[in-house]
Write a structure and sequence with these properties.
Blueprint: E1 7-8, E2 17-27, E3 33-43, E4 52-55, E5 60-66, E6 76-78, E7 82-85, E8 91-100, E9 110-114, E10 117-121, E11 140-150, E12 156-159, E13 162-169, E14 173-185, E15 191-194, E16 197-204, E17 210-217, H1 226-243, E18 251-257, E19 264-265, E20 270-274, H2 287-302, E21 310-312, H3 318-339, H4 344-370, E22 382-383, H5 392-425, E23 428-430, H6 432-443, H7 452-455, E24 461-469, E25 474-482, E26 497-504, E27 526-530, E28 534-539, E29 547-550, E30 559-562, H8 566-575, H9 579-603, H10 611-622, H11 628-635, H12 640-646, H13 652-669, H14 671-680, H15 691-710, H16 713-725, H17 729-740, H18 746-758, H19 762-773, H20 785-792, H21 803-814, H22 818-821, H23 827-840, H24 844-851, H25 862-876, H26 883-893
Parallel strand pairs: 2-11, 17-18, 18-20, 21-23, 24-30
Antiparallel strand pairs: 1-22, 2-3, 3-8, 4-7, 5-8, 6-7, 9-10, 10-15, 11-14, 12-15, 13-14, 16-17, 19-20, 24-25, 25-28, 26-27, 26-29
GO biological process, one term: proteolysis
Organism: Zoogloea ramigera
Family: Belongs to the peptidase M1 family.
Amino acid sequence: MPPGTPILRSAYQPLAYTVATVDLDFHLDPKATQVTSRLQCVRNEDAPAGPIVLFGDTLELVSLTIDGAAPADGQLRHTDSGLEIDVSADSVALEIVTRIDPSANLTLSGLYQSRGGFFTQCEAEGFRRITYFPDRPDVMARFTVRLEADAATCPVLLSNGNLLETGALPNGRHFARWEDPFLKPSYLFALVAADLKALERKVDTMSGREVLLQVWVEARDLDRVSHAMDSLVHSLRWDEEVFGLELDLDRFMIVAVSDFNMGAMENKGLNIFNTKYVLANPDTGTDLDFENVESVVAHEYFHNWTGNRVTCRDWFQLTLKEGLTVFRDQQFTADMMARASDSPAAAASARAVTRIANVRGLRAGQFPEDAGPMAHPIRPDSYQEINNFYTATVYQKGAEVIRMLLTLLGREGFRNGMDLYFSYHDGQAVTCDDFVGCMAEANGVDLDLFMRWYSQAGTPHLKAEGAWDAAAGSYTLTLSQHTPPTAGQPDKLPLHIPVAVGLIGPDGADLPLVLAGEAGPGDTTRVLELKEASRSWTFTGLSAEPVPSLLRGFSAPVILDIAESDERLAFRMAFDADPFNRWDAGQRYMERVILALAADAAAGRPLEVPQAFGHAFRALLIDDSLDAAFVAEALALPSEAYLLDRLQPADPAPLRAALIHLTRALGLAMKADFLSRYLDLEVDGEYRYHPLDAGKRALRNQCLRYLTAAGSATAIDLATKQFEHAGNMTERYGALAALVQSDAPARVGALEAFHQRYMGDALVLDKWFQLQAGAWRWSDAAPDTLAQVQALMANPAFSLSNPNKVYALLGGYFKANPAEFHRADGAGYAFWAEQVIALDRNNPQVASRMARALEGWRKFTPEIQARIRPALEKVAATEGISPDVAEIVGKALS
């Protein structure tokens, strides 16, 4: 199939031959690894007759035999994607020998080297870079693996499943044999051969089996993995308690590697992780790092069932495993936060903070994706390069779709659906229809309309209008939905949207909800199911006009359009019983103020913050009855990416001017209040990762940022002292960020001191790179950001071949600093084109992620678009550009 040809979901067909067993033998060598693959291929009775199809990419074929004999003339054909073999028997034994060069594999897909060790990454199509194979998720087989390597440089030899045998060999080499007793697709294959040490722990599963847990890292990092191990144990226990799912192997292994395109990979029993999501201790990891380690460890462990035991039929069904597993890791995180709380109120607040973080990410990353040229349903209908569809839509929006099923079916109904899903499909490769079908069958409900969430792209707009009838004591709520056109989908159909609703009385208390025709008092929150373009509901028995609280808990991934005055938003900020909606009211108020300031900045008018907003903001700041973590979220401004999407057309410069003005104005107006809260929130004693302490540190750092933005000498002195005397990375990095996001000359010395302290720690230096790449320029006298980024690329710690470094520095500039990237002279775009082309030569996956920084270019003003287009066209016209980047840029330009 020629490059750039779309692959269609509707064209799916099973292969004529599948694979029953795979026996792999690796003779590992940095430049000439030899792989012997023995496949027992069997005819697929559910498929039309045809040849054995084997995919291969950049392989040297040494030999191939069919049932022990060389292929007959014309029996073996080379194709654009690999090999085809004509056979007639129902069962055929193939032996294939290939040779590969791991040291030259800079794509980090397939088998590659990192710091002298050998590692693999096979999702989505990396296994075909190791050996010829029907490398599709619907081909599930049992694997046995023999690894042979130099014993001195690679004393540890790991693969999937259970260890069968190890031994010494001549010439200083050794071997290990592994067997995975479970069927798996090739994308879940993994091997590791390296010089590593393990933190080990033995635990009993819910059925009483003893299992071995291991976290493998370089010896120097052993003091940074205890949190990852604790997170693994918590994940194992949670999956047993909440879903009744038990670890099925004798051991479960996590391996950390510094060169990795993704966050982590759920290979069966041998999860390979980016070091970023394994290593954390108080001196090198922030509270957020600890949270991320716990979340990602949980995510990959949960894949053991939602992704491994039941996998995807094809890559169009990617959200089947990823959306579901993101939902599960979000639920896990909320439960862990709640369990660590010291009261029911604190637990509810902790759950709300987790939910707020989920929605912040959705709005900042997925909503813009839905509004751009790469908009696609959570189950796409076509793709050119599957690596481009590991997206916020598939993951985060996919998780929201699963959450809506929980909202509609309830916890018991959802668990019943999950149980049925595993009972029907364990050991199979299935579709999203199979999953939703189990939910429907287990609960006796019709979810056919709900399936539109899987096929329709775009973020729906939910319009809400209320009508108060004082004479009848009734309130009528009318909800209507509209999804804007997206690429390839101009016409949209109504979706099945669960809308969690509450009504707040004049005294701030929730009202019982009774719909017309119902008898007796109802709950104070209920879920309305909008299935039509528009529908009305009338609530009765009310003594005064209520204030509606809609989409409680963010019950659906939509944009809510509702007319609310400043006074009503302030009222909900103060009284809404749903903590998420209380936060969201503040965000909506902030958004309104910021966009008005941006409009004034664009028109050259003076910028003034409304006094009423300042009062509402201060009320949250000084309310010490609220959980500190919640207040920290409530005082944080909406993300720049989300705000840019709310501007029509988007212009980053006046938006940044508005954000700087608002931050400064709040810091100046509430200097005493910020200072008081800052001093009251100091956490005594040794560092511990705990939600209560983390919340205090988060709010304390938030106060410090507002204070330093105001530019007072007192604030700069506070930040400098916190930086110099911090007992943990959260406080040290929080102070550094406050100094960098200011005009303070002290920022220069702090940045240098941070670099000197951590110059040998790659992960910590990523924070240093990212902070400078994303820094705002608070005055014309501040350093030129692009020049700083270019200078930092020359730092010995930076490397274009390391994804983490690219994401930190280049991603921090291209994606997290719009005002500086979209500079008026267009130099940011020329730099972007240069780096995307350079990255693409070695690692197309990383290059395509950087390319996406300009996919939404048409939302900007005509003047900005005119500066962006030449950069896009330059990349598109580059000879030899990869399909990964070509798809992103081509869709942006088309």
